[in-house]
Amino acid sequence: MALQIGITGGIGSGKSIVCRIFEALGAPFYSADERAKWLLNNDEKLKKAVEALLGQNAYLPDGSYNRRWVAQEVFSTPTLLHQLNAIVHPRVGEDTESWLKKHKKSPYVIKEAAIMARAGQRNLLDKVVVVQAAVELRIARVLSRDPQRSETEIRDIISRQICDSERLKLADFVVINDETQLLLPQVWHLHQLFSKKQ
Q1: Which pTM value belongs to this model?
Q2: Regarding the domain delimited by 1-28+105-198, which CATH topology (the fold level of the hierarchy) does it fall under?
Q3: SS3 assignment, position 198
């Protein structure tokens, strides 16, 4: 099987850019968040289960997932969020498994997720790469790419994510994305390392 490399980092750290560089270098790339969104919009069995839990408001008249409404409902009710995750996560898990089978001949694959356990701890990852950047820089990045968000909203998201020191405890490797160090050489070094299949 391919080495499974997890990429994580706080909002605005640049983990998606790091994943895209790995992808450009030929590594198959799986984004748990993007696939979850796709499945919520396209998997009929999953859509029915979500509707059974949350009611018809969970989907808009055109059949697309009503993300904003669902977020408002579940984030104020932790038990509901837990029940929704219990429906979505296993389906994403199945999707990940079939994706991995397709790419088993690759030296390594990249999996991106905002929330991640240490490699080998309740997951199938061989290594975890943490993308780091200072909080103020991360806030500035999110504000520039997503102008409808306020600084207060972004700080609120950051406060709900695990702190940098906790995230670093998960790391087998750290990529610094603070605009003082070049990103490409750091990712190229890891690409060469993972391609050797330790």
Answers
A1: 0.82
A2: Rossmann fold (3.40.50)
A3: coil
